[in-house]
């Protein structure tokens, strides 16, 4: 089953705070797939981190900028990697269901060419996620200097050419300032092709609270409406006394979402709930 996945520019797995957060998230959500960007660690350490996470399989790209882990329920069929991306085709064991996942980091022209190549060889459902280090338009930036066309044109043309659609909301990167030149951007994102959207139309990508990195973890929940039994949510009054309570609620509520007014309200309430229970 394609259930839950995580993409995160962790900015070093050696950061105890960040890696403990990663382990906590995996214990809670039992991810089928995890992509760690910029681990800043030797590839010989990959097996150690795989065991610590309790994942069945692990792989890195050629320049060790991307680590991926996946569950024993998935079988790797083939892979292709370059300096900025790692693409794997998987199948669910015991089925003929195949799909591709591409983890990416850093924006350069070569990455757009890599994505165009993968798209030209792909007929199955395909998801792409990671740190693109660029934005698509001025709606994906808040604060700072105005966005120019030259910043966005290559990326926009690439996404149009490979027919990938955005999942999730804006503003998952923050420059860390509380006052003055505060800047929010959508540097990290998850995208899917038409086949992926048809296979898993209820996929949601809430952005979790930043901790240990200036990038928010992208939590991918496939078939969010159908894959689990809803549990009653109880609001705990003591949450309001937590030092990060207002920050978490405000950050979750302000994230952009698209849909009817009722759907927008439902999505925002769900994000606030997830932020609180984290």
Automatic annotation (TrEMBL):
Name of one Pfam family that matches: Exo_endo_phos
InterPro entries, per the entry: Endo/exonu/phosph_ase_sf (IPR036691), Endo/exonuclease/phosphatase (IPR005135)
Protein name in UniProt: Endonuclease/exonuclease/phosphatase domain-containing protein
Organism: Solanum pinnatisectum (tansyleaf nightshade)
UniProt feature coiled coil, ranges: none
Gene3D superfamilies: Endonuclease/exonuclease/phosphatase
Domain of life: Eukaryota
GO molecular function: catalytic activity
Domain Endonuclease/exonuclease/phosphatase per the UniProt entry, residue ranges: 7-215
